[in-house]
UniProtKB/TrEMBL annotation, chain A:
The keyword Transferase applies. Catalyzes the condensation of carbamoyl phosphate and aspartate to form carbamoyl aspartate and inorganic phosphate, the committed step in the de novo pyrimidine nucleotide biosynthesis pathway. GO terms for molecular function: amino acid binding; aspartate carbamoyltransferase activity. Belongs to the aspartate/ornithine carbamoyltransferase superfamily. ATCase family. One of its GO terms (biological process) is 'de novo' pyrimidine nucleobase biosynthetic process. Residues 149-294 form the Aspartate/ornithine carbamoyltransferase Asp/Orn-binding domain. It comes from Corallococcus llansteffanensis. L-aspartate binds at residues 79, 162, 216. Carbamoyl phosphate binds at residues 51-52, 101, 129, 132, 257-258. Keywords: Pyrimidine biosynthesis, Transferase. The gene is pyrB. Pathway: Pyrimidine metabolism; UMP biosynthesis via de novo pathway; (S)-dihydroorotate from bicarbonate: step 2/3. This is Aspartate carbamoyltransferase. It is an enzyme of class 2 (transferase).
């Protein structure tokens, strides 16, 4: 049994072994092993999510597990139940794995300290979203074989993004170079200490990128004065067809979803030949199967 | 007539320039004699062999949350006083942010009455600056001070309204009491859970920049200069604040400040993987700030070490980090953490004692803080080299919220004397009730 609370704390060989295992779970791979038959995977989602929850659910069912879907809407949380009480009640139903999504950074750590089963972080606040980073790395590995020496450019609201943090740690661990590009108000301090390079000037770095990952821009950022407007953001940081022209010819465009069409990503690019967004989603199931296997075993 | 004779102690009494082996005779609750020569014990006197020990003025903590009235599950005046004397404190200043705010003589009198019943150490209430700590209308400072309050503070909350802050500084000059401020610009700290830096980035927690404190210190020093008032800055946590206060002192402004042991001991990395026992306001800062605080303790910029003893229950802390309530208990670990700076060679023993006793007494104009003949026999006996391991479950405080559980500290209180009466000795309380 092992927790996946973040990419941080996992060694390169462990990450690669997990990605290798995910490879076997791709359609057309060896027949699915029902290693979780008779076991329960509990999805504890304290925050709305369609993609990640469904992906974990499909992955768990493919492994033969029963899935307990718990969501915050209309639950005991609205009656004032604490996170730990909720987690302990779910634990009492005997799951092998608790998959948790929560708006507070560190919530999976708190749960992991108090339950006996494996805890998988499905996204916590602005901290980590390790399964997303693994599926992103998997998608890139499919194209490149190895990530060593490749430059991945992450563009957008890095400050509030768990996807950016997990990808930074994961891609660095796998040997890539990571450049983070955002307006100064949306870049937290100390990214360099995590191995990232930072810039505010998208057009200057675009030609260096072997892949470009756009982050979702939440509309709250305008009311909190991080940015003047969506319009200005897309002018300076949006991935438009003109900007794609400046990229390397074979560089793919990634996005963790859901997309704000026309804000961080223009529709033409999102639906265009560079986009690997749907590949990411497909790979997500295989990667999450590998995660559940590794964590439950 | 009752007497106590401390024999062959290392007496450290910064105000009176004493640091050497002395005998100290206490008679009828007051210091009678401090002598280089050995004294003969009067008949019936208790004799304390203090060889190898320090005999120092009783510690005074300017910043303690006793939680009574209103949150007696966390602490009461009695349990807080027990923790105080176990930590070597003979006097504590009780913050007014109780769950009936101390903004009236009624609450002040209740706290004082509970303290009399506890009969362990001096409790000096601080009154609220504004009614209900709402930051809107002034509370009746004259009534509060008349009832026994020694300072005015909205601690736990800043006074965001600059005009109101200016008037408080002006108005308080009427009574010559310090206005104690919790410096935090709420627009800069909004949503923040810890210091803004590499650790908050790694953990994905919204940061509280140093400017949230420093900007308010700057504002209040400007107001202080204009009003000729008296300002005491509580729990200073960052380099920028220290620099401004140092400069203001040089220019002769009546500003004083305190630093909490956790802020000169730990930096933001202590948050680790979301340890809510490392969550407080102001937050643990960067290593450069810790270094600056230590320098300020040495050079006199800081007047007092104050714990910001903030008891909270398990359910306040066993939650998501962002939801975790701010604050840690401090009374029972303050001496050990302060002496760590002595053992590291940062502070002299004399300066450490000054920061725990003489400094706080001077800042708030409290009795004690020194051992001149005639002064109250509030005395702490310290075994400076004794190692012990912090066990939160053995605290006298009703709460256990400390990041120092399990840490080995060097230096322990062996006796605490208040008004010539031994109230704590060798780990045990000596309650008279």
């Amino acid at each position: 049994m092992r927790h996946l609370l973040g990419i941080a704390g996992w060694r390169r060989d462990e990450l690669e072994a997990l990605l290798d295992r995910a490879q076997e779970h791709l359609p057309g791979g060896p027949e699915a092993s029902h290693v979780l038959r008779g076991k329960v995977v509990a999805n504890l989602f304290f925050e709305d999510s369609t993609r990640t929850r469904s992906s974990f659910e499909v992955a768990a069912r493919r492994l033969g597990a029963d899935v307990l879907n718990w969501s915050h809407a209309g639950s005991s949380v609205s009656k004032g139940e604490t996170l730990l009480d909720t987690a302990r009640n779910i634990e009492a139903m005997g799951p092998a794995v608790i998959v948790i999504r929560h708006r507070s950074s560190g919530a999976p750590h708190l749960v992991a300290r108090h339950v006996k089963c494996a805890v998988v972080n499905a996204g916590d606040g602005a901290h980590e979203h390790p399964s997303q980073a693994l599926l992103d790395a998997f998608t890139l590995r499919q194209r490149w074989g190895r990530l060593d020496g490749r430059t991945v450019l992450i563009v957008g609201d890095v400050l509030h993004s768990r996807v950016a943090r997990s990808n930074l740690v994961c891609l660095k661990a796998l040997g890539a170079r990571v450049v983070l590009c955002a307006p100064p108000t949306l870049l937290p301090p100390g990214l360099e200490e995590m191995g990232g390079e930072v810039t505010h000037h998208l057009d200057a770095v675009l030609p260096q990128a072997d892949a470009v990952m756009c982050l979702r821009l939440q509309t709250e950022r305008m009311s909190e004065a991080f940015l003047p407007s969506q319009r200005e953001y897309s002018r300076l940081f949006g991935l438009t067809p003109a900007r794609v022209e400046r990229m390397k010819a074979d560089a793919p465009v990634l996005h963790p979803g859901p997309i704000n069409r026309g804000v961080e990503l223009s529709p033409v690019v999102a639906d265009g030949p560079r986009s690997v967004i749907l590949e990411q989603v497909a790979n997500g199931v295989a990667v999450r199967r590998a995660i559940l296997e590794v964590c439950a075993s | 007539m009752t007497s106590v004779l401390f024999q062959r102690a290392r007496v450290i009494d910064p105000r009176n320039g004493v640091d050497g082996i002395r005998d100290v005779l206490v008679t009828d609750g007051r210091v009678a004699q401090v002598s280089e020569a050995q004294l003969t014990a009067p008949k019936d006197a208790r004799v304390v062999d203090a060889t190898g020990k320090w005999v120092v003025p009783g510690f005074i903590d300017l910043h303690v949350h006793l939680r009574e009235p209103g949150e007696e599950g966390k602490e009461t005046v009695l349990t807080g006083c027990r923790a105080a004397v176990a930590g070597g404190f003979t006097g504590v200043v009780a913050m007014p942010n109780t769950k009936v705010v101390n903004d009236s003589a009624l609450v002040t009198e209740l706290v004082l009455s509970r303290a009399r019943d506890a009969a362990l150490c001096h409790v000096y209430p601080a009154g609220a600056i504004t009614k209900g700590l709402k930051g809107e209308e002034l509370s009746e400072a004259g009534e509060l001070i008349g009832a026994g309050c020694v300072a005015l503070t909205d601690d736990g909350r800043p006074v965001m309204n600059a005009a109101l802050m200016r008037r408080v500084l002006q108005y308080a000059t009427l009574f010559d009491v310090p206005v104690m401020v919790h410096e935090e610009d709420l627009t800069l700290s909004a949503g923040g859970a810890m210091h803004e830096g590499a650790t908050s980035t790694r953990l994905g927690l919204r940061g509280i920049p140093a400017s949230a404190e420093v900007a308010m210190v700057a504002r209040d020093l400007i107001l202080l200069e204009e009003t000729k008032g008296r300002l005491h800055v509580a729990h200073v946590s960052c380099e920028g604040s220290v620099r401004l206060i140092r400069e203001a002192k040089k220019r002769g402004l009546r500003v004083t400040c305190e630093v909490a042991p956790h802020h000169f001991t730990l930096d933001d990395r202590a948050v680790g993987d979301y340890d809510t026992h490392a969550k407080m306001a102001p937050p643990l800062r960067g290593d450069g700030d810790v270094k600056a605080l230590r320098e300020a303790l040495v050079d006199g910029t800081v007047d007092a070490i104050a714990t910001d003893h903030a008891p909270h229950g398990v359910s306040d802390k066993q939650v998501e980090f962002e939801k975790g309530i701010n604050g840690i208990v401090g009374l029972e670990t303050a001496l050990g953490l302060t002496l760590a700076l002595v053992h590291e060679g940062v502070l002299t023993p004399r300066r450490a004692v000054e920061l725990l006793s003489e400094g706080p007494a001077r800042v708030f104009g409290l009795p004690g803080g020194h051992l001149a003949p005639g002064s109250p026999a509030d005395i702490t006996v310290v075994s400076p080299g004794e190692e012990w391991t912090v066990d939160a479950h053995r605290f006298y405080s009703r709460s256990r919220n400390t990041p120092f559980h399990g840490r080995t500290l060097k230096g322990r209180v062996t006796q605490t004397w208040v008004g010539g009466r031994c109230v704590f000795e060798d780990g045990q309380l000596k309650e008279s009730r």
